[in-house]
């Protein structure tokens, strides 16, 4: 008779147990998965906050550059705007990924 290690009372063949142990060993080595499993609902709030701050600073530099024609303000805007757009797309991608996992995405 085979041992019943599963709390649901499911009996696994030796081959299935070996495959399951291999899968579990691979999952145990994934540190990112382990961190997500320890804290499943928490996400750092730095990304939306940084996008909001960078957008405000970019708009301020844009207005300052237009009103004063200061090259320093325009060059700072040229350096800051791509970073702002990149982080905004990253934030939108995370929101879309989270929506797809929860089943709300069509």
TrEMBL record:
- Tell me the domain of life: Bacteria
- The protein's name is DUF3040 domain-containing protein
What high-level taxonomic lineage is stated for the organism? Bacteria, Bacillati, Actinomycetota, Actinomycetes, Kitasatosporales
* Transmembrane segment boundaries: 45-66, 72-92
Q: Which UniProt keywords apply?
A: Membrane, Transmembrane, Transmembrane helix
InterPro entries according to UniProt: DUF3040
Pfam families for this protein: DUF3040
